[in-house]
Amino acid sequence: MNADTLRGHMDALLLSVVEREPLHGYAIIEALRERSGGALDVPTGTVYPALRRLERAGYLAGEWAVAGGRKRRTYRLTDSGRAALAGERSAWKSFTTAIGSVLDPSR
Amino acid sequence: MNADTLRGHMDALLLSVVEREPLHGYAIIEALRERSGGALDVPTGTVYPALRRLERAGYLAGEWAVAGGRKRRTYRLTDSGRAALAGERSAWKSFTTAIGSVLDPSR
DNA sequence: GTCTATATGTAGACTCTCTATGTATTGAGG
DNA sequence: CCTCAATACATAGAGAGTCTACATATAGAC
To answer: Which residues cross the membrane (chains A, B) (predicted)?
Structure first.
């Protein structure tokens, strides 16, 4: 999965993956890999800054915790983030429809 | 349609739109708008440099022409570009599958 | 004569993602 | 004990593509 291909869709992915339950950065990376069947292997240098950005935007709420002697920052989806996620899902649909209609080889 | 959302998919769009018949930049912009039902309105500052880039890459072959007193640079899909387009289409499928599986609200 | 549509192009800003690097703890294997 | 892999977070700097804004020019309509 190319770098630029993913661009602009990272927010939706991150918000979506913490929808059910709060997760910390490392777990988010694993969740993305698993859910995508291995297609998405996002480096830490992408995820951690992105999580901070989404926290600053008010879509995620981060909290420090300790598990097994290791410090973790766990991110929870806020109400505002839930609304943003809905918007991202809707935008994703429009996006795939638009690109798909151009890419369709039968026209 | 957000700027970053489109990123990395412009090549596929441009190659796809000149697949059937060669087109010049301005016509390509119109074709993208029409085919996408108005969703894609790509500015000239994006398209013209991108066409040059694809020409440098060998995917498009550009040629100057004059129509109605106006100069046009018409781009034709090369064999190499045709192959690239096939790759882009395949990548698009994988991409939508991967993102879709993460975004799916039912999991 | 002015305005719109047609047609191409560049400069510079913007911002996200990546690579590379750094730190630190835990637990397994030898 | 020591080393290595896995876990966990983070930043600096590079890179690249898309955008805004601007510049130029012709044709045709009004």
So the answer is: none
